Amino acid sequence: MSIEKYLLRLYPRIWRARYEEELLAVLESCPLTFPDTIDMLLGAIDAHLHPYLGAMGLSLYERMKQMLSLLRRSLLTMFCSSIGFMLAGVGFQKMNEYDDFTKAAQTITLVGLSFHLILIGAVVLFLAVLGAGLPIASAIIESALRQKRYGSVFLLAVPLLAFAVFLLTTLLLETILGPGNHLSPGWRLFLERGVFLGVLLAAAIAGTGALCFAVTRSQISEELFRFALLLSIPATISMVLILLAIFVWGLSLRSSVPQLFSSNAGIFASSTAGTWLGIVIAMTITIVIAVVSLVRGLSARSALRSTAA
Amino acid sequence: MSTPNLGRFSDPSILILASLAGGTKHGYAIMEDIETFAGMRPGPGTLYGAIARLEEYGLIEPLPSEERRRPYRLTAVGITFLREQLSSLETFAAMGLRRLASI
User: Fold this and answer.
1) Predicted ipTM?
2) Does B3 have pLDDT greater than 70?
């Protein structure tokens, strides 16, 4: 396959269906230079951020359907990224339970201030996700009862079940790893870190996946998605604020208590700096995904509005 | 008429509209024409990013494909929009030239 076709594969499906053939004809007439390749890559990013482009050729019904589906997909991606972000945040919170960090937050102004900002941001994020999610959950139950598809109600219960499994596993691990155990260091490490993290991640994936699946198989009104998109704006802003506060927290800790920053007080007695950096990287990735999804969602929302008009 | 938000595609869009003011053209012909009258060639990604927006805002419309090439033409809205844009550019250019003359 030619490089031109590879580049076009990067464009969204709707866009390709409308413009691929004619753009290929243009590219066959003029040899592709390096700046043109960059231009095509930027064009692909732009087409993904403005997914309504290329949908003009579709019928009004098909266009509305595509944009609604896109709005739903964007919201679900944002939801998944906020869960990923919260998991990284839980890691940060766990690390801060150690006395040394609590003391640092109490004695060093910038560390304490940034920690409080993180808490405020976390509350805003949680409320925004809850505010967007609860009406949708209620619509899922309503839709399930109306259509007599009770599987969706079960899907809503999966996060609670997954959390219960995680709690049980934690209790079980505490018993196994408690005083008087005769486990080898290898087994200890495997249970303490491998099983704990594995169950935590599996519970998060199962819970999030079940909720996403429940949304896709239920009839949910466009208004609820629009409302959820509106709340995803403060959610994304609070994610950015939390990340900035964690970044400032790390830098101020590094300059004020360098021995703590360079110690092994991170998650599972790992490097503090490494844990902090890992959390910052994980949060940055989830924020990038959330922002891209938000832009796509807003784009789909405005396309839905103009199509309806 | 409300001004369409063409974002960073504003300049290429005006060039495309100006090119189509000279008659219907397909993508490659628009590219060539712009290179002739403006001395710059828009990249293929920029060209089709702008074409997609112009079509979305109803400023141009596609004609039936000729083999794999699809010609475009200005719509009535596109003509009005281009006229408004060029008039404001003309006013702006005249003001700039007047000020330069007084230096």
Assistant:
1) 0.86
2) no
List of residues 6+ apart from A94 with CB closer than 8 A: A267
Gap between the Cα atoms of A39 and B41, Å rounded: 12
> Can you tell me the distance from the alpha carbon of A30 to that of A39, in angstroms, rounded to the nearest whole number?
14
- At A37 the pLDDT is 94
pTM for the structure as a whole: 0.81
Q: Which residues of B touch A23 (CB under 8 A)?
A: 27, 44, 48
- Contact list in B for residue A52 (CB cut-off 8 A) is 56
For the segment A93-109, the average pLDDT, to the nearest whole number, is 87
Asked if B25 reaches chain A (Cβ–Cβ under 8 Å), the answer is no
Looking at beta carbons, which residues of chain A come within 8 Å of B70?
A: 22
Q: Which residue of B has its CA nearest to A307?
A: B56
Report how far apart, in Å, the C-alpha atoms of A81 and of each of A4, A84, A182, A236 are: 32, 5, 40, 10
d(CA A241, CA B20): 47
Judged by DSSP in three states, A300 sits in helix
Task: Note the pLDDT tens digit of each residue in A50-99.
Answer: 988 888 778 888 888 889 999 999 999 999 999 999 999 999 998 888 88
Distance (Å, rounded) from C-alpha A136 to C-alpha A227?
10
Q: Chain B: give the shortest CA distance to residue A25, in Å.
A: 6
* Residue A162 pLDDT exceeds 80: yes
A240, containing H or E segment: helix A222-256
Which tokens sit at A99?
């006395």
Verify whether the Cβ–Cβ distance A25 to B46 is below 8 Å: no
Distance, in Å, from the CA atom of B43 to the CA atom of B48, rounded to the nearest integer, reads 9
CA-nearest residue of chain A to B27? A26
Distance, CA of A237 to CA of A124 (rounded, Å) = 9
Query: CA of A40 to nearest chain B CA: how many angstroms apart?
Result: 4
Average pLDDT over residues A135-139: 94
Q: Say yes or no: B50 contacts chain A, CB-CB below 8 A.
A: no
